[in-house]
Amino acid sequence: MTDKTVSLKQCFNELTENAQSLYLDTTIPVLSKPPSPLEFYRDYVSWNRPCIIRHAFDHFPATYLWSNSYVRKKMGDTLVTVAATPNTDGHGFADAVYANQYFVLPQYQRMSFGAFLDHLEFYHEHDTDACKQTLQKTYSIQQTDDEQLTEKKMNVQLAPADTTKDIKTDTQTWTENKCDDGAEDNDDDGYCSLCNEVLYCQLQNGCMTNEYSALCDDIEMDISWASSALNRKPDAVNFWMGESRSISSLHQDPYENLYCVLAGQKQFTLYPPTDEVHLNKVPFKKAIYCLDRSSKQWS
């Protein structure tokens, strides 16, 4: 290793240490109310410091209206795009590294929003321990021609990256039958969709105003103090809904993000930009999960 390489590494190490000692917090700051545009930009955006803001969206009707029954009634049989991944050791890894060789995108399926809710609600009531179906844990990979740059770590819960471009969708008719423990399933041969499939509404590119436009009256499409701080309106407003098994891999977004959790919880693992050099980015070949409905096998 040359002296020049050693010197460069030392510089990056010092950058990380200086950032941690000078301005990065050891805990995430929690604000009791929305900041002013000046405070938001000066104290957080300009320093790339995350924060939790309490009561920032209390004025949204969605905060008290959005229950499963409410959104089911508003959305009805509207077709939505749903990411589907195999259940791997109790998790559905969307946009994640597989076998340290491939960056695998989920299979995108078109189904009614009501059918998506059915899957989530049935799984919540489903006794997976009593279900006798063997989970699919070994998959072949359908490779695409592109390459995706991502980090090696895959067990990080983050908002999903933009993976909606040039992805074929599988339009299906959702039917429910019974599996061995009496819970809902997809067919009569013992295959349990609740155990084997993890579904996640995670479409990007402004899906709130497209697929979920029926819910737009319950939120505001512009957060005034954030727009003033950033000197621009939001480029996209998205609606995401999933369950505890849904996990996205470590990635980086080219946007400033405001994430509003209306029900449940979302766990983020964040690294500051000064740590980027330590994340061991490597290129992976891109692939897409595919479920064959006739054979009940993921590939």
**What is the helix content?**
10-25%
Q: Compute the gyration radius: what is it? A: 21 Å
Given the helix and strand composition, which structural class is it? alpha/beta
* Strand numbers in spatial order across the main sheet: 9-7-3-12
β-strand amount: 15-25%
Overall average pLDDT: 75
Helix-strand topology string: HEHEHHEEEEEHEEEEHEHEEEE
Shape: globular
- Spatial gap, N to C terminus: 42 Å
Structure notes:
The protein has seven helices and 16 strands. The chain has 299 residues and is an alpha/beta fold. The strands form six sheets. Strands 9-7-3-12 form a four-stranded mixed beta sheet. Strand 15 (291-292) and strand 16 (297-298) form a beta hairpin. Residues 132-186 have low confidence and may be disordered.
What labels describe this entry?
single chain, 299 residues, alpha/beta, globular
Write the layout of secondary structure elements.
Elements (H helix, E strand, L loop, with lengths): L2 H20 L7 E2 L5 H9 L6 E2 L8 H4 L2 H8 L3 E8 L5 E3 L1 E3 L3 E4 L1 E6 H13 L16 E9 L18 E3 L5 E2 L5 E2 L7 H4 E4 L23 H7 L15 E3 L33 E7 L2 E2 L4 E2 L1
Parallel strand pairs: 1-2, 4-13, 6-14, 7-9
Antiparallel strand pairs: 3-7, 3-12, 5-6, 8-14, 10-11, 15-16
Helix pairs in contact: 2-7
Concise description?
The chain is an alpha/beta fold and 299 residues long.
